[in-house]
Amino acid sequence: MALQRPDVMLRLMMCFATAVAIWGISSAWAPAFTFRENYVPVRDVMARVKFARVDDVKTKELRENAFKQAPYVYTQDPRDLDLRRADLNLLLDEVAASDKLADLKPDTWKQFQLPATGSATSGSTTSGTTPAPAATPAELEKQADDYKQFHSTLIALGDAEKRKAALDGIFGPLKTRGILTAIPDLHGDRNREKILIYPAGRTKEYSLVPLDVPLTSVLLGDGSAVKTLIREQLGNSTLSDRVTAWLLPKLKSTLSLDVVDSLARQEAARDAVEVQEAKYASGTLLAPAGVPITPEALNLLRLEYDAYITQLPMPRRLERSLAVFCMIFALYVLCGYYMFYRERRLLSDLLVFCTMLASAIGVIALVHWTTADPWRAELIPLLLFSMTFGIAYHRDVALILSTSMAIIVAMTGGEGLGEFIVLMGTVATAVLQLDTIRTRGKLIRVGLVSAIVAFLLSLGMSLFDDQPLGETILRHAGRNALWTFLTGFLMTGLLPYIEKLFGVLTDISLLELGDPSHPLMQELVRRAPGTYNHSINVASIAEAAAEQIGARGLLLRVGAYFHDIGKMLKPNYFVENQGMQASRHENLLPAMSTLIIIAHVKDGADLARQHHLPQPIIDFIEQHHGTTLVEYFYRQASKKSEENPEVGEVQESSYRYPGPKPQTVETAILMLADSVESASRSLVEPTPSRIENLVEQIGMNKLLDGQFDECGLTLQQLRVVEDSLIKSLIAVYHGRVKYASTASA
After folding, report:
1. Chain centroid offset of residue 117 CA
2. Secondary structure (DSSP) of 251-293
3. Which residues contact 67 (CB under 8 A, 6 or more apart)?
4. What is the DSSP-derived secondary structure letter of residue 313?
5. pLDDT (tens digit, 9 = 90+) per residue, 644-703?
6. How far apart are alpha carbons 538 and 676 in whole angstroms?
7. At what angle do helices 553-562 and 529-548 cross, to 10 degrees?
8. Of the candidates 107, 484, 67, which has an alpha carbon nearest to the alpha carbon of residue 270?
9. Is 335:400 a contact under the CB 8 Å cutoff?
10. In this structure, what are the phi and psi dihedrals at residue 124, rounded to the nearest 5 degrees?
């Protein structure tokens, strides 16, 4: 069976691998997401499953609040408070030692004056450098009474140790919590409830155990907190009032803001806030019918789709995968059956087969990448694929392959019939125009015509899908037209690489290759002018015959130019270059002459490869004689064998060209044209009837010899080709009017 053949099994495995690749790239196990922005649903779109949406606004709001409310970090430096405590302790010791105001230093009592007295000796005067105004006797008497009361209250407090304990009770909390005269504002609103305090210079310790205190306990403000501390230790008396009056003006901030640590804690607080989500239940309306889908609604639909795919049960995924593989298998059968009977080289040539499958995978991958918004350029890879195969092979092959690719794209993409019609209509328009490409502007014109069709089809299918006529569908249709038109320019630039990759020749390349100034043609003119003339004549009559049956006449003409270039290496051994000289084969054995004659095929192919001629031209060189018999020398050898039995029996295979037989219609036409053009030169009187008999006889001999078995040339086409060759040869050897010769003067 054919399935047991290794080459068949290899191709089947490659096909299966391609199907798996297409299945994976297109995510064929799950339904496609088909909604687009501004698409108008024809019915309400409801949530199939419950899902959640990240609430960015709420998350941002909570994170900003956490950032702003994070407590600031301060370092506490109590050294200034220690100085104030020492100064106050000395002053109180001095007051305790002086029973009368007169015994006290004048400047000492001035420091304890109450602000309400309005005296210049208020607590702000500490240096004693400004002389006090002279006091009246009544004022002196009141100061003495005030001092007496202040002194007695201080003495009642206790001895020096008790006074120190009272001062510890006042300055201890201030040293622990610190004092802050103003709150810096790093970022907008600040936390007014609490701050973090660390002792200065104890980085490793406070990073682990911060002191968290209320903000009101450290903010100096009007000094009420300090007054409360003093009253708790000294009582509600003139002593506490005067100590307060002395201390408050001397207090300043002992807390320093740690900007780096504060910002780090603010950012940590912001990052600690979890992402907020808005939850949607199954059955929630996501997109109402008749309303264009907004970006917000599209995002909801995408989230619902992702949740649905995540919850899709495995049996359902297997069902969809099986359906996709069955569809691909059916397309394989369709394309394989067609190519087996119409373009078998796509199946038999492993490199070409691999290129075709790789191209299919590449198209699906590019479609999957370009179909997303805002590009939606799935037409570009599909058009490139179809136009490439239309140029490399035949339009019917390109159409069958493109139809298969369009079905896969439409089905796996979830677009349905409408998208398939747009894709296939545009592709077919482009492919059907690829008859001949003789100018570089041809592909641009192909793109322009196809773009018009793409615009009309896109517009029509959108209206058929109940989409309102407006900017949205006009923009969609215009975008498809733009991509189609740009593909024409893209194909123009890619054309040389496509020719090289697939080993094909477009008419543009053939026109360049058929230039008479080609080095090989110039060398052929110089070395073998007769062969050159023969090649030109064969090219002319063969091209006309090819065009009669719809074959590629230009390809045949250029192939005919080069088909005998191997003769330039030994030109004098070929009759068309011998002129009036005697034939060099007269002194050679028939076998040797046959080797020389046959060698021009191999020599020509080698020369063509050295000059980097494309493979289709080399095929003309190698196949234009097929496996035909070098009949003249074979007969000579047979005659000698009959005359001299000791020579041995002549093997016919030794006098045949190595082949291969013609593989295309064009090479078959060249074989026939080459033979009839050479044979017609031997006619003594090339009348139309003799030419007709000659052409028919040569054609029949080639047919009976099996030379046309592998080229696909039908008997009807052979008859048309023969008729064309007959007409061309009759035109060359037409009769001429004989003119009377003029006498010389």
Report:
1. 85
2. ----EEE-HHHHHHHHHHHHHHSPPPEEEE-TT-EEE-TTSPP
3. 187, 266, 267, 269, 270
4. -
5. 776 678 888 889 999 899 999 999 999 999 999 999 988 888 899 999 999 999 999 999
6. 9
7. 160
8. 67
9. yes
10. -75, -10
